Amino acid sequence: MTPGLPIRRSRAANGARRPLLLVVSWTNPHDIYNVLTAAPPDARALAAARLPSNLVDDLRHKPFPQRHYLEEDQGKPFVGADREVWRRYRAFYNGLVQTVDREIGTVLDALERSDVPPITVFSTDHGDLGGAHGLPYKGPAMYEEVVRVPLVISWPGRIRSARSDALVSLIDLLPTLCDLTGVPAANGVDGLSLRPVLEQRAGAVREMVFGEYYGKQSWRVPIRMVRTARWKYVRYLSYGEELYDLDADPGELRNLAREPSAASAPQRAGVRVGDPGSERTRLARELDDWIRRTGDPFPGLTTTDRSGRVVATAQIK
Hints:
alpha+beta, Arylsulfatase, C-terminal domain, four-stranded antiparallel sheet, two-stranded antiparallel sheet, 7 helices
């Protein structure tokens, strides 16, 4: 794309305007991996970088792959990193975000000067841990910093500016765009239209969202997640579970699945809605149902070590 040129729709042979779909993808801020060898950000950028409130987490009560990722995998250079190292990381990451922001501005400027009434969508495939829990980059975890990604949908004159905490999934984008443009979605397409949320006719279209993780390079660590507005339940294949009350513990530091209260069955007398035992059992059932309903192969998958060698259950730490 040449900077400064407007974007115009082509016309068919009969003069009718063709629909236009423009997809623009940027690598950054994914290219964070040379943060320790690149030139340090300037003093102003360092001063503006904020450290996460959950920077310190010894991970003792978290599934083993998180510690293994830190101690033996991509996290290894950051073992024992002090606050200044993490401030440098955050400042470097912020610089990459600013670069993408400028590029987005170039595209939006071209659209504003065109004859195309645009529906604009911005999102990402994943987040970055950025020091949360003392971890860099992305790895075998379902923390908010990785799974909660930005989503902006704009349609001037049709969608009023607002923010929403509604639970959504990236699989909702296709049915949403189909709904907004009057194009029928194909049968069997996963996802829900977010139009009621965008038009502020409904606070949400979902009560919960699900997430999947398989592995990285040769290291297979299958994970599944279900998240509601308040609770998050995570199941590792062979490595245990996590349960977080996001209202009380937004930094996900206290894994309630490891506590005796989470072993309670919801049918037991005295267990209330919102009790960790009740929520763990409820969300585990929801996840089991979703696995069956979607034909998810999760129960039959295998775990491996970092070299790709299958790890027997008896060897799991």
